[in-house]
Amino acid sequence: MINKKYLVVVFFVAVFLISSFVVVPSAFAAAASGGDKIGVIDSQEVITKHPKFEESMKKLQGISKKKEEEARAAADLEFDDTKKAQLIREKRMELAKEEQQIMEPIIKEAQSAVRAVAKVKGLTIVLEKASVYVGGIDITQDVIQELKKVALK
Predict the structure, then answer these.
(1) Which pLDDT does position 24 carry in this prediction?
(2) Which of 11, 31, 62, 136 could disulfide-link 40, Cβ–Cβ 3.0 to 4.6 Å?
(3) The whole model's pTM is what?
């Protein structure tokens, strides 16, 4: 089975990117003309270095194990393969919903930290670092520090 932690991180980084950094072509044109300052960020690093990330992963691993055991127990009692598959799908859906609930605050805090750092640095656009070949101001470490400051409060 694929490493659950990796899948969860990939999923939530994708959600983080989609919800935080949607940039329209006109924004690129403005940036090219010198009107905007562009920042870049490694969102996977930001999420995995969030102060609450490890605790959340442990919680998710426990929930995942529990859901897997529930699915296995329910499937063992069922003789119909279609119903077995449906039970397993339902447990996976429940797990996905719980994963979202646990990770949502981390993602929101990361988005807020990105906005705060971008504002302080005068950035008008922040893009995923992996999508930028050249240029941009890397604010990854600044965002991680901002998250740590917020966590201490």
Answers:
(1) 39
(2) 136
(3) 0.70
Report the distance separating Cα 48 and Cα 57, nearest Å.
10
In terms of phi and psi (left: phi > 0; alpha: psi -120 to 50; beta: otherwise), the region of 15 is alpha
Name which of 143, 66, 123 is nearest 98 in CA terms: 66
Q: Which of 125, 121, 97 is nearest to 20 (CA)?
A: 125
- Residues 136, 128: Cα–Cα separation, whole Å: 10
Token pair for 7: 């899948």
Q: How does pLDDT run across 38-55, given as a tens digit for each residue?
A: 999 999 999 999 999 999
Domain boundaries, the chain: 4-152
Distance CA 124, CA 137 (A): 11
38 close to 144: Cβ distance less than 8 angstroms = no
The residue among 86, 94, 148 whose CA lies nearest residue 117 is: 148
